[in-house]
Write the structure tokens for this entry.
Amino acid sequence: MVDKIKVGDVFGTNCSGDVEVIDYIHCNNIVVRFSDGSTKSVASGNLRAGKVNNKNAFPIGRSVMGDVIVGNTYTSNNYGKFKVVSFLGGVKFSIQFENTGSTYEAAAQQIRRGAVYDPLARTKCGVGYFGIGNYNSKEHKRAYIAWNAMLTRAYSTEYKIRFPTYNDVTVCEEWHNFQNFAEWCYSQKNFGKDGWVLEKDILVRGNKTYSPEFCRFVHYKINALIVKCDARRGDLPIGVSWCSTNNVYAAQVCRDSRTVFCGYFHDPIKAFYAYKKQKELIIKEVTNRYKDELDTEVYDAMMNYEVLITD
């Protein structure tokens, strides 16, 4: 004797996975639910025989448009292997990458050619990945350029050879994901303005990590005030050079792209202090030009900035 079908019973189907009985009206009107949440009314004979088809999903193990098969694994051109998870309708499929576990939509032609994209693949300097979210590189170009430049400074071997001061610089894990970085950018007061650049150590002197708590956008003229020039000056203090003509040390500082002479000295330390006095005045002057645009914390940091002989 065949047991009566009851609400809660689960039956396998030939090509649409398992279904659960959620309502029994009569033997020719049994309501079942598929794994994707869709429902259908079926007869008991078809249910027992597995002849139940979910019209909203392409059958597992069956092909569509030729050789693309739900459940099969394929190899991409740049992101390793991926599995076709489900049919979305039209020419679209949902795929999942083996290396990262991320899911993505792809057309049948893309799957055949291997021309699919993994948003979680760390393709930028071996650490950065695009992520899944609302920010793309075209509409949010400024954020994308800033993100690329930041990762290059932190992780490009060639860049570090050219600029050794970046040898110990890193980017926080949160900002390896472009989506997180872009979202932070749009929360910043001066992001997107011409002439304003990402600065990592204006709040905390000597900071080596790009992260939300340390970074701000500042005008390039402010940023230029605190850039170090170790290679250019050699062993002398910052702002000091040897004048062989007069056998003295000269102190000079740059103000609005023009050199300001601070005097000649027989002692390089005295020359430095002349430079220091003038430099700190210039820093305050330039900072005050942008007072209304700067974050309070950036303004305060610059107004209290002290030029050190080790700079």
Residues 10-49 form one domain.
